[in-house]
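Record type: ASSEMBLY
Status: queued
Input:
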Amino acid sequence: MKVIPIYIEAGISGFESPAAEYKELGLSLDQLLIRHPNATFIGQASGQSMEGIGIFDGDLLIVDRSLTVKNGDVVVANYNGCFVCKLIDKPQARLLSASKSHAPVTIKPEDDFQLEGVVTRSIRLHHPAPELTACMH
Amino acid sequence: MYALVDAVSFYASAEKVFDPSIRNKPVVVLTNNDGFICAVCPIARRLGIPKFEPYFKVKWLLQKHGVVVRSSNYELYADLSERMMNVISRYCDNQHIYSIDESFLHFKNYGGLIKDWHQYGHEIRRAIWKETKLPVGVGFGTTSTLAKAANHAAKKLSGYNGVAVIDSAQNGKAVLERMDVVDVWGIGRKISQRLKQQGIQTAYQLSTQCPKAIRKQFSVVTERTVNELNGVNCLSWDDVREPKREIFSTRSFGQRIVDIHSLQSALTTHSAIVAKKVRRQYSLVKKLMIFASSSPHDDNYYKQTMVYKFPVATDNSCDIAKAVSLVLADIFVEGVRFYRCGVGAIELESRTFRQPDLFLPDNSNPVLMACLDKINNRYSQGTLKLGAEGQSEVWQMKRNFLSPQYTTNWRDIPKIRC
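Status: finished
Output:
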């Protein structure tokens, strides 16, 4: 939410706030977290397989489609009609999890597979956000 | 050089962006109230699914082929359209967004800067696909009409693969010979019927006609089309950009309505939509048309149309809604099961050149209207509305096969399996 600050000015003193000319636009998380707004979408992580690199169930994922995927990147891919978040092992064409209880998955020629984008940030909501929790799972 | 970039069956393709499970399936999208098929993806087209057919008529065919059916998800399409247009804008400094999925580009003084238009077109396609996952066709031509023709070839004719360039008489001929005259930009169905009676079947045949003779028989607009097909620029950017002369909002109801209050809230909502569109193009409404009808298939078909003329042209939603209230009693008839209603601004004036009335008070309230638009643009349409629009949803659009609003509603963001 954007709060619009309205300053009370009595109009008596005639002194303007000494900070007035230093006022700038507030900090924007969008600006910090999203480099390519047209190519970026936000998704929500579901599952435990990426906990080793700090992505937990319910985290927000910022996915940038414009970046070129490098080996070892955290990616989102379409794997047989489902969005998945994994580490990519390009030389061996595998999807790796960041958890001991999930084995690597080898991408076979008959699989339906497309890289969707690179996960550039993940966001943990330490307090639940009502906008999201209304319909979670 | 001009270019036209547009998406391949945009609505259907947009449905596939955030739903990977249907990427390789046939998909169709239905119009308002799930009435007609308005978009058919290439896979469905190959199965012979027809466009513009009523849904109920082809339901069996869709089921037989396992076609995925979706209602129009305008929230999603508007967002994806904006992304696509922004990506396109990187490729040319002069862009004109012509419709939700079409964008003209004008490369002025680019002489020699772009060596290979084919390659450039493929670059644009690749970037849009990578960043938005929307497939597009790109057509280049020495006029906007030729760019439109090249775009048609890029998407519809075999051997072009998404990009076509018309920069000479030879490659122009190759495209225009294979193009039906009805597909030429600016030639409607009526004109094409008359042309065909004279043996002019293809776009190429039209291009060989004498422009002066065409002008005599048809109009100066058709003459321009002939010239444009021959590489002579006749359409200035401003012709393409001209604001709309009429703005309508009409719709059939999800279910019939029989009481005056529901009709009022439906008409008022339409009037608010019209008012918003009017403001967006810096116009004012002088005359407003308000109508409601039962279905033409009913016994005793009923239709009533009223025209309200404003003393001073306005873009104020409150004034426009007031006009609806004033004529409502003349439109509503007890016992009629209303099927459709709408509001149209049929006479518009420019806000820039507005003529105030010396004796009438100025009712416009630009600050309030700007505030209203800002809130609704930010928090979605209908967040802030007039009391007369009501809370009832009975008359609202039927969208039984609606996909989630993946990019505009937090609750709908895509789930990603970890």
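Annotation: Chain A has a mean pLDDT of 86.
Annotation: The beta strands of chain A are 40-46, 60-64, 74-79, 83-89, 94-96, 105-106, 113-123.
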